[in-house]
Amino acid sequence: MSISISNLTKIYGQQKALDNVSLEINKGEIVGLLGPNGAGKSTMMKIITCFIPPTEGSVSVCGYNIFDDSIEVRKKIGYLPEHNPLYLDMYVREFLLFIAGIHNLGKEKKERTEYMIELTGLTKEVNKKIGALSKGYRQRVGIAQAMIHDPEVLILDEPTSGLDPNQLIEVRELIKNAGKDKTVLLSTHIMQEVEAVCDRTIIINNGLVVADDNTQHLIADQSLETIFRKITKNL
Ligand code: ADP
Ligand code: MG
């Protein structure tokens, strides 16, 4: 089991963002967390990645618990946060070397950096400042930094939001390739995204899981569209 979530609840003040969520994600799955804005997607990801604690419940990642072994959890995870925060004044290679340093990659630092530059298609952009890159290339830098330490689990929060149609296709391909030997949990509010990328789809609304199945099953019995339209209609 890569990610095991049990009875997870998060309350911010008066706002319940997650309501007793339990689910398990197996090694090697590419799972889509689909839900409208405010559903609780980012909250779930921030808890899994040890950025915020839950109000109740727990999570383990590759057998490590977020409370007892948070450093090990973070080592196992590559995380692309929502809105992809980057240092815009740093050059692409400089930034990736910096992140590799944070992960204590030692002798492998340079090799991993060059490998990620190639894998994410950043070779031509590598001598530019991040602030000079298009949104699509910035997303590639975000994915490269998430994968630089070769983590078992990738957590990608709305990785394609704001991309133009060409960039969208390229970044989805990159995620599918990257996901071949990893467990991937990505969030999106776009139904077509889970259809294009994810083996399994978890639909979340108001902090509750309302569907969880193989994406092709959900498409075949039309429940993906029916459920998603129903929860987005009232927004
Ligand atoms: P999503 O990523 O699906 O759009 P979020 O997890 O960001 O949803 O938010 C879920 C709910 O929790 C929303 O109603 C949001 O306004 C609320 N929320 C998120 N973060 C905070 C916070 N730090 N303080 C108060 N409410 C928050
Ligand atoms: Mg979000």
Write the layout of secondary structure elements.
Blueprint: E1 3-12, E2 15-25, E3 30-34, H1 41-48, E4 56-61, E5 64-65, H2 70-76, E6 77-80, H3 92-102, H4 109-119, H5 135-147, E7 153-157, H6 165-178, E8 183-188, H7 191-197, E9 200-205, E10 208-214, H8 215-220, H9 223-233
Parallel strand pairs: 3-8, 3-9, 6-7, 7-8
Antiparallel strand pairs: 1-2, 1-4, 4-5, 9-10
Helix pairs in contact: 3-4, 4-5, 5-6
This protein binds adenosine-5'-diphosphate (ADP) and magnesium ion.
Residues 12-13, 15, 17, 35, 37-43 line the site of adenosine-5'-diphosphate.
Please describe what this structure looks like.
The chain is α/β, with parallel strands linked by helices and 235 residues long. It has a domain at 3-85 and 153-233: Rossmann fold (3-Layer(aba) Sandwich), CATH 3.40.50. It is 37% helix and 26% strand. The chain is built from nine helices and ten strands. It has helices at 41-48, 70-76, 92-102, 109-119, 135-147, 165-178, 191-197, 215-220, 223-233; strands at residues 3-12, 15-25, 30-34, 56-61, 64-65, 77-80, 153-157, 183-188, 200-205, 208-214. Strands 6-7-8-3-9-10 form a six-stranded mixed beta sheet, with helices on both faces. It has a four-stranded antiparallel beta sheet with strand order 2-1-4-5, covered by helices on one side. A hairpin with a 2-residue loop joins strand 9 (200-205) and strand 10 (208-214). The model has no long low-confidence stretch (mean pLDDT 95). Magnesium ion is lined by residues 41-42, 82, 157.
Mean pLDDT, to the nearest integer, reads: 95
Tally of strands: 10
Major sheet details: 6 strands, mixed
Radius of gyration: 18 Å
Order of helices and strands: EEEHEEHEHHHEHEHEEHH
List low-confidence stretches: none
